[in-house]
From TrEMBL:
<keyword id="KW-0378">Hydrolase</keyword>
<dbReference type="GO" id="GO:0005524">
    <property type="term" value="F:ATP binding"/>
</dbReference>
<dbReference type="GO" id="GO:0140359">
    <property type="term" value="F:ABC-type transporter activity"/>
</dbReference>
<keyword id="KW-0813">Transport</keyword>
<dbReference type="GO" id="GO:0016887">
    <property type="term" value="F:ATP hydrolysis activity"/>
</dbReference>
<feature type="domain" description="ABC transporter">
    <location>
        <begin position="4"/>
        <end position="234"/>
    </location>
</feature>
<keyword id="KW-0547">Nucleotide-binding</keyword>
<comment type="similarity">
    <text>Belongs to the ABC transporter superfamily.</text>
</comment>
<protein>
    <submittedName>
        <fullName>sn-glycerol-3-phosphate import ATP-binding protein UgpC 2</fullName>
        <ecNumber>3.6.3.20</ecNumber>
    </submittedName>
</protein>
<dbReference type="GO" id="GO:0008643">
    <property type="term" value="P:carbohydrate transport"/>
</dbReference>
<dbReference type="GO" id="GO:0055052">
    <property type="term" value="C:ATP-binding cassette (ABC) transporter complex, substrate-binding subunit-containing"/>
</dbReference>
<keyword id="KW-0067">ATP-binding</keyword>
Length: 238
């Protein structure tokens, strides 16, 4: 287990600066949620932490390791996206095992990790199916399972529920909470759903136009928003 420290993260695409010096500390085992309007840089920040984008400035430290210049596979991170990106030709079991197989883990170790993740997510009975035979919620579980199997130090979730219908979104919220209780993995979770943020977060970070507006517990932000923007963003339940 390890904490995550992002210091002064900057990212430009051409002349456009998307991240304008973002610093975030996520303590070991903490569930931190990033909220903010569309286009404010949430995905860019997560992709940078994962190593899918190269920062223009700043640093990323996981535990004691500076990972700023490491490739994604060496960062100890697993990321789940809004689109689940499962391999359609592979079974659920094979999808979940994929990362460990690439890392040349032993077969017994892979089987054990897949079984354990399937148990946690209640998808034991789906292991031999292909993604096309699954519902949206089941697919999302498999995508999360694929992340768990790799036993990362850090989970990154980028709007993992936004493709699901409202009922399922609420149910999956509890799944994430339960997952976190069981595994305690340090998590950075992006959403634009205020209720989701309020329910799941130990701490919420409000991002606006590439900068942090406020950081606090859900209660602090709700009761003492730093400005009108935060108040409006978190105060109006959908
Ligand atoms: P969010 O996830 O908060 O909606 P993003 O991080 O996806 O925001 O995008 C932030 C800004 O960066 C947007 O204006 C977007 O158009 C721009 N952007 C993101 N990725 C790229 C890219 N690869 N090339 C150019 N601009 C990008
Ligand atoms: Mg995004």
């Amino acid at each position: 287990m390890a904490g995550l420290s992002i210091q002064g993260a900057r990212k430009s695409f051409g002349a456009t600066e998307v991240l304008k010096g973002v610093s975030i500390d996520v303590a070991d085992g903490e569930f931190t949620v990033i909220v903010g309007p569309s286009g404010c840089g949430k995905s860019t920040l997560l992709r940078s932490v994962a190593g899918l984008e190269e920062l223009t400035g700043g640093s990323i430290v996981i535990g004691e390791r500076d990972v700023t210049s490491l490739p994604p596979s060496e960062r100890g991170i697993a990321m789940v996206f809004q689109s689940y990106a499962l391999y359609p030709h592979l079974t659920v079991r094979e999808n979940m095992a994929f990362g460990l197989k690439i890392a040349k883990a032993a077969k017994t170790e892979i089987d054990k990790a897949v079984r354990r993740a399937a148990e946690i997510l209640n998808i034991e009975t789906l292991l031999d199916r292909k993604p096309a035979a699954l519902s949206g919620g089941q697919r999302q579980r498999v995508a999360i399972g694929r992340a768990i199997v790799r036993q990362p130090q850090i989970f990154l979730f980028d709007e993992p529920l936004s493709n699901l219908d409202a009922d399922l979104r609420v149910r999956m919220r509890y799944e994430f909470a339960s997952l976190h209780r069981q595994l305690g993995t340090t998590t950075l979770y992006v959403t634009h759903d205020q209720v989701e943020a309020m329910t799941l977060a130990d701490r919420i970070i409000v991002l606006r136009d590439g900068r942090i507006e406020q950081v606090g517990t859900p209660r602090e932000l709700y009761e003492r928003p730093a400005n009108i923007f935060v108040a409006q963003f978190l105060g109006t339940p959908r």
